[in-house]
């Protein structure tokens, strides 16, 4: 274990170098193998080879203790590390991943990451299994689509996007409280069935265009792109003599949204409400016996988690320009749940990392269309077998799922009675 403590400026410089290397590594992982197509049939194989090499390198660094030491240095300078990480995320368009395709992929990863963080409140902190969570993302998206001024929308009004985000979050939160109300009487598998039923009800309602608010099988197309000071988010951005790819502004916006969602999650987790959620997750009966009002607090978990998903849904509607019920099926809820469990329940980096992995892998393995779900499932099984606490575990989960070690009992102390008897005989 490395225990060096350097000067503050030296450690800041070290963190700058480390985070710059992380930025370059992320760009290299995204672009390794190129974009899969008929002309590039080996992109998936190249990506897997590169990913294996990176995994081996990170494993060696972790075994040496270097990554643990860097994590400790970053924790000592938490505010500085957060600011630098945010700056590195905003600098991704200036790397090799700054093309229109990879900016679109990165923006979609951001949508999944923001939604997974919201789900992490419900599953990771409160311990409530939700199998229909993607419906809240869909509710936010359909609300934004109807308030966007699109020709196919039921409501012929156009609302400014910041207000649309607030309205989408509030409406999704109301539905979250409605879905969370059965938690007053059911838990465990029964709660999972209730949330699964809600997700299916949402999909069927959207498919049948109930109320004329979803467009049914025709969806709601033609959602206008966002614009800021006359600059459309879908067009190229010129900064001085530098021309950035279309979609960069969408990527910047989703980075800021994810940062805001992270801030909300971190403050909630360390608050009195967050500690109550964790107590319910560990033992609801014991929490109730200690005076925790478990019913309202569980409803708050659903409400806040749904609001964060609705916020991401408003962005999703304008980014994709089309909202269809096909985007919010049960498989998407399972993917989000897997992202939370894979990354590490109850942690911010875990949800972001899990969402990134579960979105990037299918994109990069398109050439293995017949086998990619099989490979994907095998990878998840292996990770859950050898690291059940997740890739970035929470302190509580790490302690719960740490491998048990059986210590040998200490040798008995020497008998003083035998020694006294021998002395008497002598």
Brief descriptors of the model:
426 residues; two-stranded antiparallel ribbon; disordered C terminus; globular; mainly alpha; ABC transporter involved in vitamin B12 uptake, BtuC; 4 strands
Alpha-beta content class: mainly alpha
Just name the CATH architecture of the largest domain.
Answer: Orthogonal Bundle
Compute the number of strand runs. Answer: 4
Overall radius of gyration: 25 Å
Number of domains: 2
User: What is the makeup of the main sheet?
Assistant: 2 strands, antiparallel
- The helicity comes to 55-70%
What ranges have pLDDT less than 50 throughout 5 or more consecutive residues?
A: 416-424
Shape verdict: globular
**β-strand amount:** under 5%
Distance between the termini: 53 Å
Mean pLDDT figure? 83
Biggest sheet strand line-up: 1-2
Give the C-level CATH assignment of the largest domain.
Answer: Mainly Alpha
Predict the CATH topology of the largest domain: ABC transporter involved in vitamin B12 uptake, BtuC
How many alpha or pi helices?
A: 17
Order of helices and strands: HHHHHHHHEEEEHHHHHHHHH
Written account of the structure:
Helix 1 (8-31) runs parallel beside helix 4 (78-90), helix 6 (134-146) packs antiparallel against helix 7 and helix 10 (272-282) packs across helix 12 (294-320). This protein is mainly alpha-helical and 426 residues long. It has a two-stranded antiparallel ribbon with strand order 1-2. Strands 3-4 form a two-stranded antiparallel sheet. The longest helix is centred in the last third of the chain and has 27 residues, at 294-320. It is built from 17 helices and 4 strands. The chain is globular and about 60 Å long. It has helices at 8-31, 43-64, 66-76, 78-90, 100-125, 134-146, 161-180, 189-207, 248-269, 272-282, 284-289, 294-320, 330-343, 348-364, 372-386, 395-400, 416-425; strands at residues 227-228, 231-232, 237-239, 242-244. The chain folds into 2 domains: 1-31 and 42-97, no CATH class; 106-226 and 242-398, ABC transporter involved in vitamin B12 uptake, BtuC (Orthogonal Bundle). The model is unreliable at 416-424 (pLDDT under 50). Helix content is 65%, strand content 2%. Strand 3 and strand 4 (242-244) form a beta hairpin.
